[in-house]
Amino acid sequence: MYLLDTNIVSDVERRLPKPTAWLASVDPASVNLSVITLGEIERGIVKLRKVDPERATRLDLWLRELRRDNADRILAVTEEVAL
Question: How many CB atoms lie within 10 A of CB 36?
Answer without folding.
Answer: 16
